[in-house]
Design goal:
With 319 residues, the chain is an alpha+beta fold. The protein has a four-stranded antiparallel sheet with strand order 1-2-4-3, with helices on one face. α2 crosses α3, α5 packs antiparallel against α8 and α6 packs antiparallel against α7. The chain is globular and about 55 Å long.
């Protein structure tokens, strides 16, 4: 049976690394196996203050896994995925992807075309509305991966905007959280982190590290939430590592569908990152489910460049 060449495997890993991650930490590692690719969590790139349980780290790895699946389908490989595979003595191994000769899934292959055009933004979106048919596609995309996407409309947004604002205040009031955020504010040349212009990066890190900007940031985020063309909460029934991997794959499927329609995402995850607020978000937005991610979708007023990525040699263990 034919197997992918190393060149083909490198291309699949490159596509996988285009996934989103908290603070653009890119917390994943890949290893080639005899019949595919193994995906592991890179705990050294975790965020112990912002993400003490590695929940968002695992979600990020799930998003990378979906990109790998989509890229493999585009290359016409049949994909078989095992989450938390049995027989592994490494707790960091999150998935094994077996690649076989055959016909790739056509819907996944089509989504792969959006991998390089998807990006995250903190900017406001233009005022154009999103068609109901597109909203239904986004909801269906999450469901196909075993998650649920809740679209928040009208007066239901106000309490969520308040939770986002409160999350900003709580996080910025914690000096440890500010120091962690500042440590990931890098020049694009570094290949990871939150891109900051080199000329202002030292000052920006100093300000974030030493000043509580929670109210100012919260007021801005409140407006972004209330004015977003689409406000979405992605949830799962459970809250295990497997659920987080499901959430990550569902997130990326939603984002690639959105990008195909010219929509990009801006994250307002603060209520999911503060556990007390996460419970309150569940009460008002995802009854019976655990909220995993809160984000805006819309059409950016200006096209942005996708975030920089680390060299493949940094994430591929046997490169």
């Amino acid at each position: 049976m034919a197997s992918p060449s190393r060149t083909e495997l490198h291309a699949l890993v490159t596509a996988a690394t285009r996934a989103p991650s908290s603070h653009n930490t890119q917390p994943w590692l890949f290893r080639f196996s005899s019949d595919g690719i193994e995906l592991s969590a890179d705990r050294a790139r975790g965020l112990p203050v912002n993400d003490p349980l590695d929940r968002e780290l695992t979600i990020s790895c799930g998003a990378a896994l979906f990109n790998l699946r989509a890229a493999a389908a585009r290359a016409n490989w049949h994909v078989d995925v095992a989450l938390r595979p049995e027989g592994s003595d490494d707790a960091d191994v999150l998935a094994r992807v077996r690649l076989g000769h055959g016909t790739g899934e056509a819907p996944l292959a089509r989504l792969a075309e959006a991998i390089d055009t998807r990006y995250s933004t903190r900017d406001a979106f233009d005022a154009s509305e999103v068609d109901l048919e597109i909203e239904r596609e986004l909801i269906s995309a999450a469901a196909q991966e075993g998650a649920e996407l809740w679209l928040i409309k009208g007066d239901a947004r106000a309490p969520i905007a308040s939770l986002v604002c409160e999350g900003d205040r709580r996080q910025f009031s914690d000096p440890r959280w500010r120091r962690e955020l500042a440590s990931w504010m890098h020049s694009r040349r570094s290949g990871d982190g939150l891109a900051t212009a080199p000329i202002v990066a030292p000052v920006s890190r100093l300000v974030v590290r030493h000043f509580d900007l929670g109210q100012r940031v919260g007021d801005k985020d409140r407006s972004l939430v209330l004015e977003a063309p689409v406000l979405a909460v992605l949830s799962t029934k459970g809250d295990t590592v497997e659920d987080w991997l499901v959430a990550g794959q569902a997130l990326e499927r939603v984002l690639l569908v959105a990008a195909g329609h010219g929509l990009q995402a801006g994250y307002v995850n603060q209520p999911c990152q503060v556990e007390e607020l996460r419970g309150r978000l569940a009460e008002v937005a995802t009854p019976g489910h655990r909220p995993q991610l809160l984000f805006r979708l819309g059409r950016p007023s200006e096209r942005r460049t996708p975030s920089a990525r680390r060299p493949i040699s940094d994430v591929l263990e046997d490169a």
